[in-house]
Amino acid sequence: MPDRAAAQPARPAGRKFWLGLVISLVSLILAFRDVHWSELWMALRAVDLWIMSLAVGVFVINLVLRGLRWQTLLSPLGPVTAREAFAFLNIGYMANDILPLRAGEVIRSVLLASKKAFDTAAVIATVVVERLMDVLMLVALAFLLVQLMPVSTLIKQSALVTAALAVAGLGLLWWAAKRVGAPGNSPEAAHRRLLPTPERILGFDVRKIIGLFLQLVRSFASGLGMLRSARQTSMAAGYTLLAWIMTLVYTGLVLWACQLDLPWTATLMVVVVVNLGLAIPSSPGFVGVMHYLAVLALSPWSVEPSAALTFAIIYHGISFLVTIVLGLVYLWREGLKLTQISINIGQQPGS
Fold it and tell me: Most buried among 24, 40, 279, 327, using CB within 10 Å?
């Protein structure tokens, strides 16, 4: 009986995994459909390895900036070194590359919370703020792209919807940080306000359920402490800006390494289209979907299919391999095994 009950919630996740796998396969077919293998091989051999090495370096700098941002977001919870933030960030990115359903964000939160004795919900809150900051930066780049060149209605609508959701999300988090997460708003005070609530409804201990819910909300809100500090919020926003500048530089270098002499708006188009499109379900590591989106982003410049796919392969390959290598290195340095990361999540209390 317990095994059957535990298995039931996994069905929607399993369906999403298979849907992502199908979408990845279809995307790979679309990306490769007009490519001649001999031309693709020649284009891959023509890649400038020195420029590609420079792109790898810029990509690592991007990761360092993201690690520093996470350290800043975590600072209200307690001391976290830059090395620790960078290590668990890359473990999470590696998990995204090899595990379904983008589990890496939860994995890095759980592992760091376990090591530092932080509340897991509070650490997850910092990751949510990270994602919302990235979304706002992506929307800003999308609006810049719209001003510089004609783009499809789909990109405009996606940017508007994404912007509205991100602003609403950050507004809600700011309210939670100010109200729910403030020092005076304890679960006990909330309990006192709920005294008129019936103790039991349909056999359920209502006050206990509400109390557990309030405790979870407060734990989450405690991870939003940096939103109450203008200095920390500014630092996190600054790291976000620098990280996205490095993303643009990295993209431009990969285009250059692949012998694609295109205007800088092509770099901007790739960054916007790929990152907006990665919300689509896909297999682990965004295989297929990222390749097709990169090829699609270059279509306004009539790039040869083999050259566009070469760029997509290198663009995805660098990010995939670098995060895999760094993730495995830091997994080993933390004394963890690859098979342990999902087990560690299951062992956490209901936080």
Answer: 327
Domain count, the chain: 1
Q: How is residue 351 annotated by DSSP?
A: -
Residue range(s) defining the domain that contains residue 105: 35-119+226-346
Which position has the higher pLDDT, 105 or 10? 105
Give domain status of residue 24, yes or no: no
Closest CA to 125 of 73, 58, 192: 73
Residue 180 covered by a domain: no
Does residue 295 form part of some domain?
Answer: yes
Give a yes or no: residue 217 inside a domain. Answer: no
Considering all CA atoms of the chain, what is the largest pairwise distance in Å, rounded to the nearest integer? 76
DSSP string, 74-130: HGGGS---HHHHHHHHHHHHHHHHHSGGGTHHHHHHHHHHHHHT--HHHHHHHHHHH
The model's pTM is 0.80
Structure-derived torsion over alpha carbons of residues 153, 157, 159, 161, reported in degrees to the nearest 10? -170
Calpha distance 180→171 (Å, rounded) = 13
